[in-house]
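debug: dumping io for the single-chain case to check the tokenizer round-trip. Nothing else runs in this session.
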Amino acid sequence: MDPPEGHGAVSVQQRGTWSRRLEFLLASLGYAVGLGNVWRFPYLCYRSGGGAFFIPYIIMLFLCALPMLLMEFTIGQFTQSGPIHAFMKICPLLKGVGLGTLVVSFVISAYFNTLMSWTLFYLFNSFSSPLPWQTCNNTWNVPESCSAEFTVNDTSQQSASQQFFNYRLLDVSEGLEHMGSVRWEVLGCLILAWAIEYLSIFKGIKLTGKVVYFTALFPYTILIILLVFTCRLPGAADGALFFLTPKWHKLKEVQVWIDALSQVFFSIGVGFGVMISMASYNNYNNNILRDSLIVALANSATSIFSGFVVFSALGYMAHIRSVSVEDLAVGGPGLAFLVYPEILATMPVPQLWAFLFFLMLLCLGLDSQFAHLELIATTMMDCVGPKIPPSLRRREVLVLLVCLPSFLVGLPCVFQGGVYVFQLMDHYTVAVAVLVMTVMEIAAISWILGVQRFSMMLTSMLGKSTNMYFKICWMVLTPLLVLAVLVASIVQHTPPRYEKWYQFPDWSKAVGWMLTMASIICIPLGALHELYTRKGSLMERLRSSVTPSLELDVPPASHQEQEICLSSRSEEACLHSSI
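debug: decoded output
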């Protein structure tokens, strides 16, 4: 059975397909398994009830994240299009959802590469002996406030790793109002990161599919090696026990359930349009139900496994420093660039462990970047590919046109005040905007297109009817849960801060909210454009703008045949009648 072709879309032959199903799985898993699995989940787990946190986490995995992942895989594989063109086919009125995901991916790709430049900087410094974040006798250290030993509750002292991060890597300025000069070494690392990403995707998914064999699998190798080594160190068992000890009373707190849903939702990466883009390169009859289960379960298992790796190392660090594990347990970049480098410095042959650890972080970050850049390239090819000159349509040139603007937008992050720009963009770009677009995506699929019709799309590709469990989730449970997280994110929104001492000025918060609205505004603008360009009365325009394109019907049945079939029989019967 051939896939439906869209109006003006680039053909499947021009777009290409994954060489093997394994490449699609690895690319999807590589995107889902990112830095958050290593530095956010373990911290969130210990803070939200330890082992008890697994209960809401797994429940939210099956009620929200898995149904959403299957939904996005279905949209991409059925339409064989990126998010903009896919929504133009499914619900033209909400085509702005696809455009909004493009804006988010562009901003993320711009500032996220700052983390890749930091990782490369640490990677290159891992060859020094001793490690430069091990001692306080370097030129960048402030001797009177530097301590080679870990300090607890002493605001007058900083660890050697903290001073390396602040004064050697960042040479951080006093605030966002003082951008300072360019950090040339970090800029060189940023250029190298972009070069690696360009060379990995400029030939399309045929090349990217080969690269992910290493970038997706290598982190697992390092995590296993780290766990085997650290679990034998003194104090490691205490760290793992601290990670697992359930605090059952935490389950009574609503915030714990919201945290569980937020973590599994953003960890898998639904709502960004990336999964739609990657699934669009699948063969039409690929078993995406099986792929969804593999990606969702493997991602969650990786998060839990990473928790053991992180807390075993933290337990060892707490043992040799004679402090509590709780004093070391931090989330976010602080774990990767402040705490873990200290842990690595205490191990035998620390240069080897540091190199492997930061190479692992690089691979985790690159997979995420591949996905966002591929989304932008896919969207450009789908929407404007046939209209641009052949010389610019070449994949090598197109990817360069994607990478160059993102590189320029991310340049402020490599100034002395760049860490404040990074913090601001990271704080405002993702959470609220992606949740708003996810709610609108679910509305377009579940309530406008209709779960029954959407299930028929999935049935046409799998050859069997859709499970009632997914239909209930799509219709009721998933939209309610995502809406709850959206409301909680808005109500509990806190202004950004850098460490404990710097508060962002009011004007920067206004800029941040403008950044949030840059993607959300695409939804009403897309709707107004669609209504304006159609003909007839307002109601006729509205009715036609929520009517899916004919290409959404399961081939080879006609639109009229499918409507008659759906009104009288099950989707499985419709499928058999059309084959």
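debug: round-trip ok. The chain is about 70% helix and 0% strand.
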